[in-house]
């Protein structure tokens, strides 16, 4: 009886460890594919993340797209970052914020302030999202501060009769005070 | 900055009932975040212990909801935990006030309702938030911090996993080979029937006596001394796993007695090889 049990246990252990080895081998192969995609994106070649890829591939593609001002596509990649590490999520939002800021600065330099303001407002939202994902992201804090100096959040006058703080509309209006001169 | 001033006053007015109500409600004790040293984006954690009489709870619908409380302040999360004489609320606020100089901000108090109908206030608090960049820092494109770096996936955890599971597979295969007397372990002494079955399979077809002899050697080895037909019940008591083939063993020993000591010299060896195989299988726990 003991021998039969030992035989069954040994066969089970062998099968289980073989299955685990197969799983880890597959995971290593997928890691290599994902890393190849990340290297391609970092090297300036576009690569689509595979189905169920590691969030770091989506992160890399968002960085790639944001640097090339393909912000609609970058925005569409954001849902793939769900469940990723906070610093990766934060980095993805931060890269989009930086792209918006660059567009905003371009518009400011050509004196198209009406186009610059919405870009910087969107950049602020992106930096806020970055800080919501990772409140300790110091880069996002600095750049959000810079965006806030360009287009400040300012409170609206209190609306009468809206007593309940939960239903009161978000009081936000922005303006672009002054004219940043840009670097000499 | 001048524009913000009336609002701060208004927020202050809103917050005024807070501390007063908190004093009127001796059951509410707040553990507020530190009053100084906060930047924009920082999360401020406020713990409020609400002492409740037996059978009274906080109306969950009256708890403040996570939302943008003000243009510079988000309420991220409200969690509650039972404590011996009431409930502990944890409010996580996030400050988005971009200060040009250190400035005190007022987090408003919030009304709550208890299930017995009484109203109470969760107290607000003040904190000083400081600018992260110098006041005179220019707002130019070169001040923008660069994009984040690309992150590669670390393949080492999976590599370690593969090495460990490969090692486990090797160890369990070796253990199985030892247990089944395969390969280098085939000469193990305590698998006499397995050895005998293999030898019998290799013996030439005409050597019926040789086959029989090999199997008897195996019985002797398994019993620890020479096993004769009369000792068979004793052997079966010592090795009960062979009980299912007891009848065939009895027949085998009877035939052997006839072959070696009787006159039936031309007795065919019949099922010696299948019997040896079956005994070997039982011995290795496979039947």
TrEMBL record, chain A:
Residues 154-184 are annotated as: Disordered. The keyword Signal applies. This is MxaK protein. Keywords: Signal. Residues 1-21 form the signal peptide. It comes from Paracoccus siganidrum.
């Amino acid at each position: 009886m003991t021998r039969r049990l030992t035989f069954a246990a040994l066969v089970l252990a062998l099968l289980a460890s073989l299955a685990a080895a197969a799983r880890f081998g597959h995971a290593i192969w997928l890691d290599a594919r994902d890393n190849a995609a990340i290297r391609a994106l970092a090297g300036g070649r576009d690569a689509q993340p595979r189905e169920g890829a590691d969030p770091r591939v989506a992160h890399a593609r968002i960085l790639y797209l944001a640097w090339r001002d393909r912000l609609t596509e970058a925005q569409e990649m954001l849902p793939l970052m769900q469940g990723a590490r906070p610093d990766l999520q934060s980095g993805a939002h931060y890269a989009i914020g930086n792209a918006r800021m660059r567009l905003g600065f371009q518009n400011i330099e050509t004196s198209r302030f009406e186009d610059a303001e919405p870009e910087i407002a969107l950049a602020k939202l992106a930096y806020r999202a970055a800080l919501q994902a990772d409140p300790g992201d110091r880069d996002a804090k600095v750049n959000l501060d810079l965006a806030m100096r360009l287009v400040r959040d300012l409170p609206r006058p209190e609306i009468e009769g809206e007593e309940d703080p939960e239903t009161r509309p978000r009081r936000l209006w922005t303006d672009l005070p002054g004219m940043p001169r840009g670097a000499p | 900055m001048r524009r913000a001033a009336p609002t701060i006053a208004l927020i202050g007015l809103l917050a005024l009932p807070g501390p007063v109500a908190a004093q009127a409600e001796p059951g509410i004790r707040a553990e507020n975040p530190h009053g100084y040293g906060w930047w924009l984006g920082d999360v401020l954690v406020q713990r409020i212990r609400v002492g409740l009489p037996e059978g009274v709870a906080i109306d969950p619908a009256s708890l403040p909801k996570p939302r943008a409380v003000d243009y510079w302040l988000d309420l991220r999360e409200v969690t509650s935990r039972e404590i011996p004489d009431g409930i502990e609320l944890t409010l996580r606020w996030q400050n988005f006030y971009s200060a040009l100089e250190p400035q005190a901000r007022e987090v408003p108090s919030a009304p709550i309702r208890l299930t017995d109908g009484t109203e109470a206030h969760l107290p607000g608090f003040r904190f000083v938030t400081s600018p992260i960049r110098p006041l005179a820092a220019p707002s130019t494109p070169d001040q923008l911090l660069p994009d984040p770096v690309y992150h590669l996936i670390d393949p080492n955890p999976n590599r370690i996993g593969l090495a460990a599971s490969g090692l486990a597979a090797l160890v369990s295969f070796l253990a199985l080979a030892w247990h089944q007397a395969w390969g280098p372990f085939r000469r193990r002494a305590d698998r006499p029937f397995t050895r005998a079955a293999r030898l019998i399979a290799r013996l030439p077809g005409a050597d019926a006596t040789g086959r029989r002899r090999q199997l008897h050697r195996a019985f002797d080895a398994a019993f620890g001394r020479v096993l004769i037909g009369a000792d068979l019940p004793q052997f079966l008591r010592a090795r009960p796993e062979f009980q299912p083939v007891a009848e065939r063993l009895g027949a085998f020993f009877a035939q052997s007695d006839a072959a070696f000591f009787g006159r039936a010299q031309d007795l065919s060896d019949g099922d010696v090889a299948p019997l040896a195989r079956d005994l070997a299988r039982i011995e290795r726990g496979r039947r």
